Amino acid sequence: MNLILRVFFTAALTGVFFVQAHEVLAQPQSQRELNGFALGQHNSAIKAAFKKLYDERRTEDGWIYRTYLISEKPFVYMSFKFPADDIDHAVSIQIAGDPTKRMLPFLGLKLGASAEDVRRHIGRPSETTQLTDPPVEVWKYQGRNYSFELDKVKGLSSIQVFGYQGFGEPPGLPTPWPEVRSRLLSNDVTQLMTTFAADAEIYHGRDVYGIDNSLWTVLSDSKSKFRRGLALVVLAIQDDRAREPGEANLRISRNQPVRHVYKFRPGSPVEEIVLTPHAGAFRVWEIRLR
């Protein structure tokens, strides 16, 4: 692996040698998560997941790129992009470097996989771009938010998810309460990953239980702060007074998405549960307990 750190720059195509289009085949849907992190995670949670910042760059148009080292041997790092209009929430996640087992599979792939592995799991790319510095080939897929880089020996050296292309709009109606309740009661980490917004919070009195690491780390650790808050939620929604919300409302705020709110009757241990649209679905964003 070339140890020169290279972060994807949105408009940078320095070293482009040629671009070749390929037939578009069916590929997996766009992805919200990469190596345990989710699009939309707060900068503070990302920072807490790593020992120290490895590199930070700011573009002329106000974007911030932050890179953190996972390991020196093998050389593996993760990079996150934060847009100028929301520098607190990541809109891009990238993992890159040498072959490693120290990562969660992405659609069945890890760094070091062969080009044939990528084709078998993802399909043929709709577009490839050959870069010369460093010498890698970028594979992109039409209508999807993920891309891959393969090094000169056709080994997978980088995976990136960028933005929300391919997710579509969330359904017009919020997730029905019985499904929300079932998801909150689940112990399945994979299901919980799809249930919660990347910056979800639980409020109980003066206590706030938030996401303070990668979403996967937080949800897979029963002793994490957020899971301790979720344990309170599980107890609360099993109370007879919280089995059904009293009403469902909309929350409309300036410069914010329209959110759906399940409000509970006075005397219920649950005050409200807020769902926010994100990456093509409604996800639990805020829970307030009495």
Brief overview:
The protein is built from 6 helices and 17 strands.
What does this structure look like?
It is built from six helices and 17 strands. It is α+β, with helices and mostly antiparallel strands. The chain folds into two domains: 16-162, no CATH class; 177-289, Nuclear Transport Factor 2, Chain: A, CATH 3.10.450. Strand 4 and strand 5 form a beta hairpin. The protein has a nine-stranded antiparallel beta sheet with strand order 1-8-9-10-11-7-6-5-4, with no helix packed on it. Strands 13-12-17-16-15-14 form a six-stranded mixed beta sheet. A two-stranded antiparallel sheet has the order 2-3.
Strand order of the largest sheet: 1-8-9-10-11-7-6-5-4
Strand content: 25-35%
Gap from first CA to last CA: 53 Å
Radius of gyration: 21 Å
Quaternary organisation of the protein chains = single chain
| Low-confidence residue ranges | 6-25
Total domains: 2
- Which term fits the overall shape? elongated
Helical content, roughly? 10-25%
Biggest sheet record: 9 strands, antiparallel
Q: H/E element string?
A: EEEHEEEEHEEEEHHEEHHEEEE
Structural class: alpha+beta
Overall residue-averaged pLDDT value:
91
- The counted number of beta strands is 17
Helical run tally: 6
